[in-house]
Amino acid sequence: MFRFCYKSVPLPFQSCRNVGISLTHLLFLQIAPVFPKSLSSKTSLAPKIDFPPNNTSLDGHFIVSYLRKSWGLSPENALFVSERVKIKTLEKPEAVLRLFREYGFAETHISKILRYFPRLLLADSEKTVLPKFEFFKSIGISSPDLVVAISRNPRLLSQSLEKSIVPFYDVIKRELPVQKVVKIFGLSSWRFFSKEAQSNFGPNISTLKEVGVPNSSIVYLLVHSHLSFILQQNSEKFRENAAKVVGMGFNPSLLSFSNALQVISLLSKSKWEEKIKLYKKCGWTEHEILLAFRKSPLIMLLAEKNVVTKMSFFVNKMGLQPSDVARTPEALKYSLGNRIIPRCSVIQALLLKGLITKKIPLSTVLKSSEKYFLDTFVLKYQQGIPQLSSIFAGKTSLAELGLGFESTSGEKQV
After folding, report:
1. 70 close to 26: Cβ distance less than 8 angstroms
2. Which helix (DSSP H) or strand (DSSP E) does residue 413 occupy?
3. Which of 67, 223, 325, 412: disulfide with 188, CB 3.0–4.6 Å?
4. CB contact at 8 A, 95 and 45
């Protein structure tokens, strides 16, 4: 293959005295079960605080201090949040804060959620937040999974339970096993659909099932937020794209089908033709391009500069033919500086020193695990080339050893 030529969080008490908040109002933290019983509307989470008539909102400095000490925000984030909401009373913020703590959210989770969703400070904990928590509990999501889901996607709390969350759940529970539904809600950073997109979701999942895509691949599309958009597409266009991918020879039972569907869904006809021209310019035939696409669909999403730079290295410095790279298209997805050059430099050094003589497939060089490559090509020949570990680590170049790659014209390049 190779043709080498070589805690507790007190409120700011001083500020509280200035606005007439009693110490009793601050004692709202308590130990509670991970999933508490529904909080009765008769139970006041934090008593209403009265302010002087001439105050339409709390003092900005007080709010910043409150957000830092009670919600765990940094000074910068506390200022950011305080500028985006006008708080007239601490009743709602304290009620929400208490609810989060009762459900097992740590200060780090709470501060992150508030940073991305400041209007949470104005939410009615019992009418908007608690019902969502109770719904997730009712479908089997545990406290740790709930914390993970909402911390990853705080805007989940801004979604309507009746208009977005429940309809979405009703669709996926019909299509997927219960445990998969829990995984999607509890472990993904799912972004909920618009009403229009939701109408396409069910038909699109049905299309995948019709062509033979297994549930595991459907879940893969769902739990990866960068792929989930595919299922939101217009159902007719989606069916057309799925048929196109099947027609290109992809096996629906393999994960590569989902990746190919992603590519076909993202690239317009003109963009697809541009990618074909790019790889032809690199020396691949159209047949080789399609074969490479079947092996590694995501190569069609690589930037032109990325592809050209790596192909130039493989062909001009390693002495490979373009067809050699086409047979191992995954090679184009690896980092040039962190993987390709260090590993190829090790192989080149071994060949030039005569420590190995057989051709090493490009797939073995780049796709093998770190441990396998280290054991097979570095540690094994350490005595013959003491600098081999340093070459592999990218600390020593072949030029420093008086070695180098040779171009296809036979001219040594370093």
Report:
1. no
2. strand 412-413
3. 223
4. yes
pLDDT tens figures, 55-103: 445 778 889 999 999 999 999 989 998 888 888 889 999 999 999 999 9
How many residues are recorded in the chain? 414
Rounded-to-10 torsion of CA 263, 265, 267, 268: 150
CA 260 to mean position of chain CA atoms: 19
Q: What residue has token string 């310019």?
A: 281
Tokens 């934090």 sit at which residue?
46
CA dihedral sign of residues 206, 211, 214, 219 = negative
What is the Cα 245 distance to its own chain's centre?
25
Query: Closest by alpha carbon to 224, among 185, 188, 177?
Result: 188
| Half-sphere exposure of residue 390: CA atoms within 13 angstroms, side-chain side | 10
Which residues, given as ranges, of the chain have pLDDT below 70? Answer: 1-57, 175-179, 182-183, 186-194, 223-227, 404-414
Whether 257 contacts 298, CB under 8 Å: no
Q: What is the pLDDT of residues 114-133, one digit of tens each?
A: 988 899 999 999 999 999 99
- How far, CA to CA in Å, does 113 sit from each of 105, 157, 220? 10, 9, 25
In degrees, rounded to 5, the angle at the alpha carbon of residue 107 between the alpha carbons of residues 38 and 20 is 80
| 8 A C-beta contact, residue 104 and residue 41 | no
Neighbour count for residue 71 (Cβ, 10 Å): 23
405, β-bridge pairs: 413
Nearest C-alpha neighbor of 2 from the set 378, 317, 246: 317
Residue with tokens 């089997």: 140
